[in-house]
Design goal:
The complex is a heterodimer of chains A (474) and B (213). Helix content of chain A is 52%, strand content 10%. Chain A is an alpha/beta fold. Chain A has two domains: 7-299, 3-Layer(aba) Sandwich (Rossmann fold); 409-473, no CATH class. Chain A is globular and about 90 Å long. Chain A starts with 9 loop residues before the first helix and ends with a helix. The mean pLDDT of chain A is 93. Chain B has a single domain, classed as 3-Layer(aba) Sandwich (Rossmann fold). Helix content of chain B is 28%, strand content 23%. Chain B is built from six helices and twelve strands. Chain B has helices at 3-15, 41-54, 68-78, 89-97, 110-115, 165-170; strands at 58-61, 83-85, 103-105, 118-122, 125-127, 132-136, 151-157, 161-162, 179-183, 188-189, 197-198, 205-211. The model of chain B has no long low-confidence stretch (mean pLDDT 96). Classes of the chains: A alpha/beta (474), B alpha/beta (213). At the A-B interface, helix 2, helix 3, helix 4, strand 1 and helix 8 of A face helix 1, helix 5, helix 6, strand 9 and strand 10 of B.
């Protein structure tokens, strides 16, 4: 069964990922392509900033009144014949889904891509219960075939190139070693059609849940979500409590933001708005529709504004594609269902901070994530907030590891900055000696490894103080 | 305490809200996001055609004969072993007028529907801005006919075309049907090295046939 890497060891995971040059090439190519597509679809769009503002205002409103909208969603969905379940944590969600699977799946449940089901580790529980949970999104299916967890929230197999995929399918399915993406896609279609026909239960997530109508909205390109939610007799959606929107009309702005940010499309191929099971026995569609509302740590994030904003995330993946850290190490290094910048802020709030203490540090704080976030989530601000929690002895959190050399250097710098005369003298000597000392220091440990690929800036011939003094004298 | 009570209590505690507290403020008004330029039917139609083509769909004009000639040509070209059809009146009229076609009604056995090679339905709306079809499965048995076969032919009454997504959302019936799907081009994936492959789980070809109405 596919396992996550230990999230406490981000640094070690990252080192291993960095040594995999092939994967780095694949990640770079893919994230660059997505970034370029996003820029192309946003180019010359005068409304983008206004859309971001509108969407954020809606999310802020919903989150500030989340209890109201949850109850409203339940009332409206129930009135349309949907069965609404509540799951306080992952175990509760798994129990509900397993019960439904035992009653309805007939041995096979088909799954549409859902990060929430990854979060509660549904596939493991199903395997233990002897029920096949078949991933039907092509990328997710490949990851299941490889016995790996997804490495991106939108493109699960983003770290593999076509040759990796051809090799995987050759080994697991006996397809030709040099099969191209179109051939392999056709193989997936045929194999998965048989599963869709056999499955008694379809499991999905949802991108949005509409309180006023009790509806779910799901976006996709492939059609596997439509099959999952149309063909089996019973459909169950596992939905985080933060996914609510007040009205159907609110979808307008979110459907404009999400595909553009995620894949650079103006609209994905399909958006399905699902409101209850079929109304007549002879109609098409599932006879039962279940919605499981999942908390699993989300409610905790509502208290403070700074943490609450992370619940505005619509899981577009733009921050992953823009992040210089993610681009190099990929998703698996984070050891979490939610990797990248948004993962580094969401994960430590969903799992105990003790386990995820390394993740808020897995960032350069460059701010590219905040820049691209369609909901304007201040991810760097959140990372700093969480770093402070880790550092300032959040109950039960051991201080994060920092190398002794770095600690000494910081203490030395702090001492110098507190003593102006010493600081000035040191600068004077540094300016005199840098020509000789700098190349020397670069060759000696501990600076040697740090200096690889970095150029040390030269000190200016005149420092700010003396320029200022000269200026005031005039 | 039930999970429901637990979750609601946690949410209310974190937000500092009392049980059953009303909304402190109404939700933000829904802005009109589409550009507010006037659209003639001809301009909308042209834009729809361009956008549909850009996402890999095909637009045909069937206004003269309810789509019959276009469908005949597509049948000729694909030679489908079975054609899954919905129960929309405009579709049933074509079924009547082309009796030698291997028709399969949407009430047929599931296994037969899975084997169909072409599907024909109508569409309840379309969006010019994105080249999108609106399929309302509450008024037509088109949920599987538009999804299972590798080729999907949709009859679009030309008067149902609207300018943008916001207008299409506002035009949805109330109460909402159990399922509405917006369709923009053929089924696609780019999950293997971002290479575009069409027809992964749904249709690989999408033909929109304009009909009057």
């Amino acid at each position: 069964m596919a396992e996550h890497l230990p999230m406490a060891q981000f640094a070690a995971n990252a080192d291993r990922a960095l040594a995999d040059l092939g994967q780095r090439r694949n990640l770079r190519a893919a994230t660059d392509t997505f970034a370029a597509r996003r820029s192309a679809v946003l180019a010359g769009n005068p409304d983008w900033e206004a859309w971001r503002t509108t969407a954020r205002a809606v999310k802020d409103h919903v989150l500030a009144h989340l209890d109201h909208y949850l109850v409203e969603f339940e009332r409206q969905a129930t009135a349309r014949g949907t069965v609404v379940h509540w799951a306080a944590d992952a175990d509760a969600a798994v129990r509900i889904l397993l019960d439904l699977a035992r009653q309805h799946a007939r041995g096979v449940a088909v799954k549409a891509k859902s990060m929430t089901t990854e979060e509660v580790r549904l596939n493991e529980a199903f395997a233990a219960a002897g029920i096949d949970a078949v991933e039907t999104d092509l990328g997710e299916w490949l990851q299941q075939l490889a016995d790996e967890v997804p490495s991106h929230i939108v493109v699960p197999a983003i770290h593999k190139n076509r040759d990796d995929v051809a090799k995987l399918c050759h080994e697991r399915l006996g397809t030709p070693r040099d099969a191209d993406p179109a051939t392999l896609t056709a193989v997936a279609r045929e194999r998965l059609r048989a599963q869709f026909a056999a499955a008694g239960l379809g499991i999905s997530g949802a991108n949005f849940a509409i309180a006023a109508t009790g509806s779910l909205l799901l976006l996709e390109n492939e059609g596997n979500i439509r099959l999952t939610t149309s063909v089996p007799d019973v459909h169950v959606a596992l939905v985080g409590i933060e996914k609510l929107l007040p009205r159907v009309q609110d979808l307008d702005v979110f459907l404009r933001l999400l595909p553009r940010s995620g894949t650079g499309q103006a609209l994905t191929t399909y958006q399905s708005l699902l409101t209850g099971p079929k109304q007549h026995p002879e109609a098409e569609g599932p006879r039962e529709l279940h919605v499981v509302l999942l908390d699993n740590g989300r409610a905790r994030m509502l208290g403070a504004e700074v943490t609450r904003q992370a619940l505005a995330c619509i899981r577009c993946g733009a921050c992953l594609n823009a992040c210089p850290v993610y681009q190099q190490v990929g998703g698996h290094a984070y050891g979490s269902v939610y990797p990248g910048p948004i993962g580094a802020v969401v994960t430590p709030q969903l799992v105990p901070l003790t386990r995820a203490a390394a993740l808020p540090f897995a960032s350069t704080l460059c701010g590219a994530c905040r820049e691209v976030c369609p909901l304007r989530i201040d991810i760097p601000g959140l990372l700093l907030h969480l770093r402070a929690e880790v550092r300032e002895g959040h109950p039960g959190v051991p201080p994060a590891h920092s190398p002794r050399g770095k600690r000494w250097a910081m203490q030395l710098a702090a001492f110098g900055l507190r003593h102006p005369r010493l600081y000035r003298t040191a600068l004077r000597w540094a300016r005199l000696l840098q020509r000789v000392a700098s190349p020397l220091l670069r060759r000696l440990p501990p600076l040697r490894s740090w200096a690889q690929g970095r150029a040390a800036p030269e000190l200016a011939p005149r420092d700010f103080r003396s320029l200022w003094q000269q200026r005031s004298r005039r | 305490m039930s999970d429901r009570a637990q979750i609601l209590a946690r949410v209310r505690q974190q937000l500092g809200r009392a049980d059953d507290a009303p909304l402190a403020t109404p939700p933000p008004p829904v802005p009109q996001l589409g550009r507010a330029e006037p659209h003639s039917e001809a301009a909308l139609l042209q834009q729809f055609g361009e956008r549909l083509q850009a996402v890999g769909g095909h637009l045909h004009d069937g206004r003269a004969d309810g789509g019959r000639a276009v469908l005949e040509r597509l049948l000729q070209q694909h030679q489908p072993a079975a054609v899954l059809h919905s129960d929309a009146p405009s579709v049933l009229a074509l079924v009547q007028s082309l009796p030698s076609t291997p028709w399969l009604p949407s009430t047929a056995l599931r296994s037969a529907q899975f084997a169909a090679e072409l599907g024909i339905t109508s569409a309840q709306g379309a969006i010019a801005d994105t080249g999108t079809l609106v399929l309302d499965f509450g008024v037509e048995r088109s949920r599987l006919a538009s999804l299972l076969p590798p080729v999907h032919v949709a009859l679009l009454p030309v008067g149902r075309l609207v300018a943008d997504l916001g207008k299409a959302l506002r035009a949805l019936p109330e109460p909402l049907p159990p399922a509405v799907t917006f369709v923009t081009g053929p089924s696609r994936t780019a999950d293997i090295e971002l290479q575009l492959v069409v027809g992964v789980h749904g249709p690989r070809e999408l033909h929109v046939v304009l009909v009057s109405g």
